[in-house]
Specification:
Blueprint: E1 6-11, E2 15-21, E3 26-30, H1 33-46, E4 50-54, H2 61-69, E5 74-77, H3 79-88, H4 96-110, H5 120-145, H6 151-181, H7 183-193, H8 200-209, H9 218-225, E6 233-234, E7 237-238, H10 248-264, H11 266-277, H12 282-303
Parallel strand pairs: 1-4, 4-5
Antiparallel strand pairs: 1-2, 2-3, 6-7
Length: 310
C-alpha cells in the first residue's frame, strides 16, 4: 500500500523551503518563475495528498497560484495555527527548513479542509480592496495629525489628503467597473446591496474577501469571519464568550454596516433593541447585529433572493 505524502512550504521573498512528511525529504528552490515551475513538476510526480504553506503577507500568492493551476491540492494555513502546532510537538527552534518540516507534519496531523483558490480576477479585486483600505487609513492618520501640526505642515497635510481622496475615488470607480464587468459579481452585488445598511464598500469587501458567502451554513460563515462567540469554560468556571480569529478586515467593514443597519434597517434595529433590553452591553449587541446581518446576507446569496424585510 502506497504511503500518503504531505508537503509543507515555507515561503520567503527569495526562496521556497520544501519539507515532505513522512519521508522527511527537504530541499529549497528559488521563489521565481523558474523555481515555481520546477517545484510544480516535482510535486506533480509525487502526487501528494496535501500541500500546505503559511500566509506570508502576499509572498505566497505566486506559488499558490502556480500549484493550483497544476491542479495540485494546495491550501494556505494560518501562521499562528501552524506555530501553535509546532509548540505542541516540542519544535521550539525556528528556521525556514524546520518550519517547512513542521508545516508538512501539520498537514498530515490536522488535514485542514481544502478550499478553492481565488482565480486571477478575484485576487486582483481583493488587492484593489486592500489598497482602498490602506488609503482610507492614511486619510484618517493625516486628519488626526492636523490639530497639532504647524501652519506649513497643515498645508502639506491638506494637499496630501486631497490627493488621497482623489485616488480613493479612482479606486472606487475601478472596483465598481470590475464588479460590473463580471456577471457573477454583478448579481452578487445587486443582491447584497438590496439590503438596507449594505453599501458599495461592504458589498465589494464580501465579494473580494469572502467568496465562501452563500456556500456555507450561517454558523460556518460566522466562524469564518470571526463573529461567532466562542466558549471559555473550564470545570465549574464559566468565562465570557468572545469572538476570536477570523478575517479582521472584513469584520471592520461589517461593523460599520451593522451600525448603519441598526439605524435604518428595521430587522437589525429591532434585534439590537431587543438585545439591549435584555441587558446586553453595546459591544455584545453590536457583535450580535454583525452576526445576524452576515447570516442574512449568506442566506440571500445562497437562495439568490433580494432583501425581504418581512
Amino acid at each position: 500500500m502506497s504511503t500518503e505524502l504531505f508537503v509543507g512550504i515555507d515561503v520567503s521573498k527569495d526562496t521556497l523551503e520544501i519539507g515532505i512528511y513522512p519521508s522527511l525529504e527537504a530541499y529549497s528552490v528559488p521563489n521565481s518563475d523558474q523555481g515555481r515551475d520546477d517545484l510544480s513538476q516535482r510535486l506533480k510526480a509525487l502526487s501528494p495528498q496535501l500541500i500546505v504553506c503559511e500566509a506570508t503577507g502576499g509572498y505566497e500568492t505566486a506559488v499558490v497560484s502556480r500549484l493550483a493551476a497544476a491542479e495540485l491540492p494546495i491550501l494556505v494555513a494560518n501562521a499562528r495555527q501552524v506555530r501553535d502546532f509546532a509548540k505542541s510537538i516540542g519544535k521550539l527552534a525556528k528556521t525556514d527548513a524546520i518550519d517547512a518540516g513542521v508545516i508538512a507534519r501539520f498537514a498530515e496531523a490536522v488535514r485542514p479542509e481544502l478550499r478553492s483558490i481565488k482565480d486571477q480576477p478575484s485576487q486582483e479585486l481583493a488587492a484593489l480592496i486592500t489598497r482602498r483600505r490602506q488609503i482610507v487609513e492614511m486619510i484618517t492618520a493625516e486628519r488626526h495629525r492636523l490639530p497639532t501640526t504647524s501652519r506649513r505642515g497643515r498645508r502639506d497635510i491638506e494637499l496630501h489628503v486631497r490627493w488621497l481622496r482623489k485616488r480613493l475615488e479612482q479606486i472606487d470607480d475601478q472596483i465598481k467597473r470590475d464588479i460590473h464587468d463580471s456577471p457573477i459579481w454583478r448579481t452578487k452585488d445587486k443582491i447584497l446591496r438590496s439590503t438596507t445598511g449594505v453599501g458599495p464598500a461592504m458589498s465589494a469587501t464580501l465579494i473580494g474577501y469572502v467568496p465562501e458567502l452563500g456556500q456555507l451554513t450561517g454558523k460556518q460563515i460566522s466562524c469564518l469571519v470571526g463573529v461567532a462567540p466562542l466558549n471559555h469554560d473550564s470545570g465549574r468556571f464559566r468565562g465570557r464568550r468572545m469572538i476570536w480569529g477570523g478575517r479582521a478586515h472584513v469584520r471592520s467593514v461589517l461593523y460599520m454596516s451593522a451600525v448603519s443597519a441598526m439605524q435604518h434597517n428595521p430587522v437589525i434595529r429591532e434585534f439590537y433593541q431587543r438585545l439591549r433590553a435584555k441587558g446586553k452591553c453595546f459591544k455584545v449587541a453590536i457583535t450580535g447585529c454583525m452576526r445576524k446581518l452576515l447570516v442574512i446576507l449568506n442566506a440571500m446569496l445562497r437562495d439568490q433572493t433580494n432583501w425581504k424585510p418581512c
